[in-house]
């Protein structure tokens, strides 16, 4: 069985993925900036300082890359935007530099990316993997992030990039923030409500990483989103329905969200209708294809 090194394995996706891979018999270790994780062996690094424990690459038969400053953590000041970009690009560049120097090359490198690549929009146009990137901050960030991975191809390492949508978990990430006003009985759409939410259940995104590990014919970019994205208003209405709460308040006005969140409001006021066709054609089967199926699990 393979040894898998997970950079950023302490986060939302990483924690669930460590659990799944261990259950499947893989040996898992985490590449982390801190020593805190006690459940799995930890190799330490500091991507911004260039510090790296070389033993991590002696361990790794394959690498999963999930590291990066959380894009929703803080207001997007110029400094914060720089941190969001550098925490991904510099981390990947450091890993690649170390891989080049190492005697042991990983068989595969599977990296997170984001559907933000396509740029935020209010239209219902379907986005496919070979579309050109968008022009807003998240699109440019994601483009740079994915570009920094391309050197791996010249090193003959299998590269899979999962352009991930909003990961749904009742405990962490975007969903608890969306559930809070709904639970308080004041749930409503955000802005126009037309912006598509390209969502994926946490259980499906971790299964997709496993699928990418176990299927060596996967070697390109795949959208990691459920087959049925819905506009924000429909998402919020369904959420209220499944939580047995009312849904009659008018939408939160765009100007208010812009005032509160600044440029970061783009993340919630715009969206993208992203296609899951390519990963499904590659044989991946979703556990949760519709929001109705997923929201039933919240009861
Ligand atoms: N969750 C989503 O809805 C979603 C959607 C689209 C894309 N993604 C992408 O998928 C990846 C994993 O998502 P996630 O939700 O699991 O992320 P997360 O919970 O925010 O965790 C990411 C991990 O990255 C490391 N990290 C945090 N700040 C960092 C910084 N400034 N520099 C370097 N490393 C840093 C942390 O690990 P250590 O502290 O152990 O180093 C953290 O555990 C991320 O790149 C995210 O952007 C997630």
Features:
single chain; 299 residues; Rossmann fold; eight-stranded mixed beta sheet; two-stranded parallel sheet; 14 strands
Describe this structure in words.
By secondary structure, the chain is an alpha/beta fold. Strands 4-3-2-1-5-6-8-12 form an eight-stranded mixed β-sheet, with helices on both faces. It has one domain: 3-Layer(aba) Sandwich (Rossmann fold). It is globular. It has twelve helices and 14 strands. Helix 1 (12-23) packs across helix 7 and helix 3 (78-101) packs parallel to helix 4. The chain has helices spanning 12-23, 55-59, 78-101, 137-149, 151-154, 174-183, 202-214, 232-242, 254-261, 266-269, 277-281, 291-296, and strands at residues 3-7, 27-32, 42-46, 51-52, 62-65, 108-114, 126-127, 158-164, 166-168, 196-197, 199-201, 221-224, 230-231, 273-274. The structure holds NADP nicotinamide-adenine-dinucleotide phosphate. Residues 8, 10-14, 32-34, 47, 66-71, 83, 87, 91, 112, 114, 164, 166-167, 173-174 line the site of NADP nicotinamide-adenine-dinucleotide phosphate.
